[in-house]
Amino acid sequence: MALTIGLALLVCLIALIFTIMVGLGKDRSTYSQKKSWSMVSWLYIILLPVSFIGLGLLYYFITK
Predict the structure, then answer these.
(1) CB-based contacts of 52-60 (< 8 A; 24+ apart in sequence)
(2) pLDDT for 16-59, tens place per residue?
(3) How far apart are CA 35 and CA 19, in angstroms?
(4) What backbone phi and psi angles, to 5 degrees, belong to 46?
(5) Does the pLDDT value for residue 11 go beyond 70?
(6) Cβ-contact 6, 62 below 8 angstroms
(7) What is the CA angle 22-26-28, rounded to 5?
(8) pTM surpassing 0.85?
(9) What contacts 24+ positions apart, CB below 8 Å, involve 5-11?
């Protein structure tokens, strides 16, 4: 149980850092939809499947 809570806190901390970094780097004068999508597309293409695989493995090892 403590491992699950620790991993959840770690994921939240990483998301908070990512959100702060994106917020600090925001420049409204050169906003572009294509540039914005290219900057976060890796999130949907790489990070999302990896996180689902990680959560699946975590669930497997907890219930094993």
Answers:
(1) 58/4, 58/7
(2) 888 877 777 666 666 667 777 777 777 777 777 888 888 888 88
(3) 17
(4) -110, -55
(5) yes
(6) no
(7) 155
(8) no
(9) 7/58, 11/51
